[in-house]
Fold these 2 entries.
Entry 1:
Amino acid sequence: MNKRFAVVLAAGQGTRMKSKLYKVLHPVMGKPMVNHVVDQLKKLQLEQIITIVGFGADKVKEQLKDESLFMLQEEQLGTGHAVMQAKKHLSGEAGTTIVVCGDTPLLTHQTLESLLNYHEKEGAKATVLTALANDPTGYGRVIRNTNQDVERIVEHKDANQDELAVHEINTGTYCFDNQALFQALEQVTNDNTQGEYYLPDVIEILKKTNQKVSAHISSEFEETIGVNDRIALAQAEKIMKKRINEQHMRNGVTFIDPDCTYIGPDVVIEQDVVIQPGCTISGETHIETGAEIGPNSEIDTCVIGADTVVRQSVAKNSHIGKRVQIGPFAHIRPQANISDDVKIGNFVEIKKATLGTNSKVSHLSYIGDAEVGSGVNIGCGTITVNYDGTNKHLTKIGDDAFIGCNSNLIAPVTIGEGAYVAAGSTINKNVPNEALSIARARQTNKEDYAKKFKKD
Ligand code: UD1
Ligand code: CA
């Protein structure tokens, strides 16, 4: 098979975003735009992906890690100049190079694949992916001759009135025969309104030397939008959200209000999960069958077990078992490992703690740096006092222990299996298995003393 390569253009600053963050790093549904592009390219069988970096090069490299090779474009002299930076790697290769902009996050691998196939089937030297836009403002226009063949692409800023009236736009995605591409790029000049070396000029250069140039019209303009400003960013977010949610619905997930539900692109949700309105679920979260999330919950990179219910709560980087009840208003912080059939009630914070099966922390407690066994009942207002101002310490609570309300467990400390801690205790010594520990001042009742405070 023909060798296939990709070049991703990601060196621009993105002036129109008016942001400290480089354009291609702006997230869409929680993932930087350039990652969306590269993730789709990864699904194609490519020899190599080369990303052209410039502004924010280090940050872009950090995001893409080893998913791409990188070439530095020191000065941003235009998209044609950007592709030239890949010459060293590609000009000697026979094959096809697909060029994609780092600011077109909605393109799917299916569209990219069909562009590649079309290009190779046509035997073209260049094929541009075009789309029909209701409002083509800002895009390059595709100019066809009387035979309807593509002649050239004219940028919005360079276009005359007739050209501006054209609705067929350049999506910024192309396939090229490698050798033809780099030969034509040598001839691109910067004689235009923006003083830039335009990649689309390659089309006209090839056409003029009678090399075959073709266009593949995408059926969906929406998929090809280029995100140059925050308005387009919000549009991309909306389209991506809809696409992701509809995919989950097709897989058997119920969304009570998909318009108000934000699911990241890497989230896995099994059949018969119900997502209530107002949830944001992100990162590599996996939600097992029958779970119910929300309303208004924020879940980032968690496993949520089957039939678990998470109501109005926040959870991050944690593992939550099956048939667990969380919330309302619980905060599950990183490294919580919550076993099956646990109950975490309102105003409870769990951090870096394991809880065994059937344990309950029903109200107003902080459990941090702790190992809690199974069948443990932690009463309202219990605190694992884990921090001495310098170090964090561990609290261990054995199986079937009962911690009375409003107890402070000063770590490091161990509460034995089946032990009882009386309500209001401040425990700073280990409690043996099956013991009752009371650590509070004794109550004194002074008969009739209250009367002294009352006026007649
Ligand atoms: C570009 C196309 C336009 C097309 C549109 C589609 C050109 C000249 N114009 O316009 O025809 O309709 O995309 O979205 O190509 N970049 C670099 N180095 C540079 C300049 C840009 O790497 O020197 C990168 C940018 O980071 C960006 C991409 O190339 O990811 C496109 O550049 P941008 O400035 O957004 O081009 P548009 O004006 O959108
Ligand atoms: Ca753009």
Entry 2:
Amino acid sequence: MAASTEKFSSAMLEILRASSNVAVLTGAGISAESGVPTFRQAQTGLWSQFDPLQLATPQAFQNDPKLVWDWYAWRRKLISESLPNSGHHALADLENYFPEFTLITQNVDGFHQLAGSKAVIELHGNIFRTKCSQENRLITDPPQTTGTPPRCPHCGELLRPDVVWFGESLPAEALNNAMRAVNACQVFISIGTSTLVEPAASLPFIALNNGATVVEINPQTTLLTPMASYSVRGKAAEVLPKLAVEVLR
Ligand code: OAD
């Protein structure tokens, strides 16, 4: 069932208000109105301008660590010059309403935590964390240089951003916690994700199979849209504050 931004389905609002356990999955779309580009949108998406195979795989880092390090430094700068938007803040408000509320994000920008969300599961890491490319040990306060990545103070190998690259497994604890939340939720809300990258893309479908009500918030249709219990077509920064007002009223 599709709804415009202006008017939510009253049945959807009733289900949401009555539910005690909500899981949310966010993707790059929620940060779009903060000025952080998404990945797959034509023209503006990062993957329409850059080749992920040259920038976001272990092989890419091995081939040209400087290129990869500099690209992530550029993205860190862009994110650190931006702020969470009203969509992130509305989710932080909603977290306080529900007895159980888990926010699962594919984003690496840390905006949910900045906006005040507490139970955040980062499936793809965090661009502001740095780890050793050999031992995966997190390194605090690494030199924020550009050019050749700094070396691990423990083993001397190159440091890399603590993000998940194509071909890598997700952090096991984050994925387990996400699965637990998806299996327990009564309502699952998918926001600003193309629902294309596994395993995150499967989460709303697992929730659906479990009998949860699945709500999608996205200006575009995705593979999830025809299956979703409710589809709200609109931008996260516009839809979520209105949804929070309706739920919290
Ligand atoms: P995508 O770029 O694939 O999809 C972004 C989604 O956001 C699209 O469905 C857009 O329609 C939607 N969108 C755009 N503007 C929006 C807005 N203002 N409000 C709400 N939605 C909006 O990004 P993701 O689905 O997050 O992985 O991509 C998943 C993963 O692919 C990323 O985490 C990243 C990428 O490769 C890794 O880096 C491992």
